[in-house]
Amino acid sequence: MAKKNILNKKSMTFLERYLNNASPTGYEWEGQKIWMDYLTPYVDEFITDTYGTAVGVINPKAKYKVVIEGHADEISWYVNYISENGLLYVVRNGGSDHQIAPSKVVNIHTKNGIVKGVFGWPAIHTRSKTKEEAPSLNNIFIDVGCKTKEEVEGLGVHVGCVITYPDEFHILNKHNFVCRALDNRMGGFMIAEVARLLKENKKTLPFGLYIVNSVQEEIGLRGAEMIAERIQPNAAIVTDVTHDTTTPMIDKKVQGECEIGKGPVIAYAPAVQQKLRDLITDVAEKNKIPFQRAALSRATGTDTDAFAYSNSGVASALISLPLRYMHTTVETVHKEDVENVIRLIYESLLTMKDGDTYSYFNV
After folding, report:
1. What does each C-alpha distance from 104 to 109, 231, 297 come to in angstroms?
2. 362: cis peptide before it, omega within 30°?
3. Lower CB density within 10 Å: C or N end of the chain?
4. Model's pTM, two decimal places?
């Protein structure tokens, strides 16, 4: 596929709608419906499971099965305690960052609909100048404008209600996509674009392609664990995000070197099968797709681990999208990196098709 702008107007409309919808861990289904609606013209059928993982399937009767995967869930909070004076205290649902919470507006999801609130914080004038207290799970709180616990409960808010940030998609300096939950709804978006390109370019594959949008990655790769057992694939190419390490306060000697705008990041890790990874790097070089490399100790921390060690072992690889400010409401990625991840997965699938396809499933 010649290098060109991959994303079109329809793609961008889908991306914005998909990102602006809340899909917290355990409550991904509304986002999955948006994703499946977009994917419908490009697949032969869908699979869904008990917890909401969605899979679009191309060539479902094929003996061999290849997965391309992202995860659908975003970090959030749960209401954990309601004080007698009507303030809410929280626990994490995934790796939510307590330090960014103060002064953020939130959406509290109830059976009666969204209840607005704010993470309050003492004014700078009232804080100790010699010993400022940092935000922590013990002191951040949400104010919904009520004076009593009963008044809060009258709004439909109770312990266990999930809380998300309402921050929406925008573009910074023409080519930087900014939003909460780019981790990892960009993954779901990119694999959907691969399916679109296969259909529009009239490409056929000798294997079944399973486009997987997993749930519950943020709390331990749980959705991928479940769907891997159900599909029992022969190979899996997973896409997630990884840290841009060029911004302040990050140690490259610890985190490695990665920068947005310089291409997808191909992972080296025990869970990454060497032959499949080498296929992907060869594809990148052949097609002049810029890429970066990352070495990951022990585990990748992504759904790659869940697929790799499922069943009797699944040949798995990880292609990551560089991202700034992970687990904040201003996560940032570069448009060209997004397009190059899509190109790299697309061309890798076609290389598997045109070569000795099944040699990539085993060492």
Report:
1. 16, 40, 34
2. no
3. C
4. 0.96
List the structure tokens of 221.
Answer: 């790769």
CA dist 320 and 339 (Å) reads: 12
Quick one: tokens of 35? 């994703």
Asked if residues 93 and 248 have their Cβ atoms less than 8 Å apart, the reply is no
The amino acid occupying position 308 is A
Q: What is the pLDDT of residues 92-106, one digit of tens each?
A: 999 999 999 999 999
- For the domain spanning 76-164, the CATH number is 2.40.30.40
Q: How far is CA 240 from the centre of its chain?
A: 6
pLDDT at 239 over 70: yes
Q: How far apart are CA 194 and CA 144, in angstroms?
A: 42
The two tokens of residue 253 are 């000697």
What pLDDT, on a 0 to 100 scale, did the predictor assign at position 3? 60
Q: How far apart are CA 363 and CA 222, in angstroms?
A: 27
Domain 9-74+180-361 belongs in CATH node 3.40.630.10: yes
